[in-house]
Structures are given as structure tokens and as C-alpha cells.
Design brief:
The structure holds 2 protein chains of 2 kinds. By secondary structure, chain A is mainly beta. Helix content of chain A is 0%, strand content 43%. Chain A is built from no helices and 9 strands. In chain A, strands 1, 3, 4, 7, 8 and 9 form a 6-stranded mixed sheet that branches.
Chain lengths: 111, 120
């Protein structure tokens, strides 16, 4: 069981917006602004999409945005495109000895 | 251009030892944290541990403490993940990654992964 809880799957049609949630506790997501999101296509390495809750690395389209409220972080993808179909993982710093935790991952299907 | 190049796929038997590598280039190797992440077949990402090559500060997830050893050789800009006695349950893809910021912030660059298969 992963430390952070994500929905197993979400779907949307091209052009639509979707949101993926990531729920933790006050020891991780809720306690620090150190939530990051990764995109992983089949057979590929993960790619950083959002860091520190809402910052986009250079080269990541502004269709991707992140936010946080309490113990739940969210990744929103607007204007869905076919190439957005992938697995998405959230991650957070945690005050436990684990230091970093991941969510279980969410499979995004673009219909 | 920042690059992390990992060593090739390995097939090992239970009980054997193994050391896989991650060579960094295009950045100051001693100034960035390097992390290791496991992905078992069909499963999610698991954080294993990190090392700061500048001073060899190393930290492990409790799940992996004592099971693996993380190290780095500054002279050749290479980090390592090693096992002294592999188990079938170590079969997975292993990724190295670096962050430009604090290790808690997010991992900016990733290696291509090393597939480790442990089977008798």
C-alpha cells in the first residue's frame, strides 16, 4: 500500500480538462510544499512535470498545473492531448524516516 | 546537456551479488543529490535512497536499509546501487535521478533505467 493515495485511473476526451488527486497526511503532503508529479509513458523513465506543488520545469507545457489544499495535492491537465495518455505519480517529502514517498500512480486514458 | 546513463540489463541468480551504475554528465556531479527508485514489474515507483556525492551523505528508505548499498565515485562521476545477495523479489527496473534543488523538491533528470532479473 502506497503512502500517498491516488485514483487508479482517470479518463477524458481530447480538449477536456482532468484532475488527478493525491491524498496524504499532515506529515507529508499537508505539512510541506514539496509535492512533485511525474509522467511515465510505457517503457520509459518518469519525467518531472511539477515540483514544489505548482512549479513547472522548463519545457513542460502550461497545460499542466499543480495545486494543494490541506492534505490533498492535485494535478490538472487542461486541453487534453493524445500524448498525455500515460501513468502519473505524485511524490512528497515526508517527516518520517522514509524521507520521500510516492503515490500508487494513476493511469490517464485519453478517449 | 544533463545526462544520466545507466548500465545495461542484468540477469542473475538468487544469492549472487550485483552492482549497477549511473554515470552523470553535463552538470557538477558533486553538487546534486542522486536518488535511486525501484519499479517492480507492472507496479509503481518506490523511493530507495539518495546520496550527495560531494560528501557521500547517504540516506535510505527504511524499506531498503540493509538490503542495498548506495555509493558514488566522484572521480568518474558515477553512482552505484549494489546488492550482496540478490533475491527473486529484487527483479525490477531501477532508475537513478538527480535534482537541481533539495532532494525533497522533485527529481529533474532520470536515467534510462536498468532492468535487473533474478531467477534460478
Amino acid at each position: 500500500q502506497s503512502a500517498l493515495t491516488q485514483p487508479a485511473s482517470v479518463s477524458g476526451s481530447p480538449g477536456q480538462s482532468i484532475t488527478i488527486s493525491c491524498t496524504g497526511t499532515s506529515s507529508d503532503v499537508g505539512g510541506y510544499n514539496y509535492v512533485s508529479w511525474y509522467q511515465q509513458h510505457p517503457g520509459k523513465a518518469p519525467k518531472l512535470m511539477i515540483y514544489e506543488v505548482s512549479n513547472r520545469p522548463s519545457g513542460v507545457p502550461d497545460r499542466f498545473s499543480g495545486s494543494k489544499s490541506g492534505n490533498t495535492a492535485s494535478l490538472t491537465i487542461s486541453g487534453l492531448q493524445a500524448e498525455d495518455e500515460a501513468d502519473y505519480y505524485c511524490s512528497s517529502y515526508t517527516s518520517s524516516s522514509t524521507l520521500v514517498v510516492f503515490g500508487g500512480g494513476t493511469k490517464l486514458t485519453v478517449l | 546537456e544533463v545526462q544520466l546513463v545507466q548500465s545495461g540489463a542484468e540477469v542473475k541468480k538468487p544469492g549472487e551479488s550485483l552492482k549497477i551504475s549511473c554515470k552523470g554528465s553535463g552538470y557538477s556531479f558533486t553538487s546534486y543529490w542522486i536518488g535511486w527508485v525501484r519499479q517492480m514489474p507492472g507496479k509503481g515507483l518506490e523511493w530507495m535512497g539518495i546520496i550527495y556525492p560531494g560528501d557521500s551523505d547517504t540516506r535510505y528508505s527504511p524499506s531498503f536499509q540493509g538490503q542495498v548499498t548506495i555509493s558514488a565515485d566522484k572521480s568518474i562521476s558515477t553512482a552505484y546501487l549494489q546488492w550482496s545477495s540478490l533475491k527473486a523479489s529484487d527483479t525490477a527496473m531501477y532508475y537513478c535521478a538527480i535534482t537541481e534543488r533539495a532532494y525533497s523538491s522533485g527529481w529533474d533528470y532520470w536515467g534510462q533505467g536498468t532492468l535487473v532479473t533474478v531467477s534460478s
